[in-house]
Amino acid sequence: MKAIIYENYGGPEVLQLAEIEMPVPKDDEVLVKVYAVSLNDWDWGLLHGDFINRMMYGFRKPKKTILGSDIAGRIEAVGKNVKQFKSGDEVYGDLSGRWGGFAEYLCAPEKALALKPAGMSFQEAAAIPQAGMLAVQGLIDEGKISPGQKLLINGAGGGVGTFAVQIAKLYGVDVTGVDRTSKLDMLREIGFDHVIDYTREDFTKNGRAYDLILDAKTNRSIFDYTRALSPKGVYVTVGGSAARLLQAFFLKRWISMIFKKQVRIVMLKPNKDLAYMNRLFEAGKVMPVIDGHYKLDQVPEAFRIFARGEHKGKLVISVCEI
Ligand SMILES: NC(=O)c1ccc[n+]([C@@H]2O[C@H](COP(=O)([O-])OP(=O)(O)OC[C@H]3O[C@@H](n4cnc5c(N)ncnc54)[C@H](OP(=O)(O)O)[C@@H]3O)[C@@H](O)[C@H]2O)c1
Question: Would you say the CB of residue 305 lies under 6 angstroms from ligand 1?
Answer without folding.
Answer: no
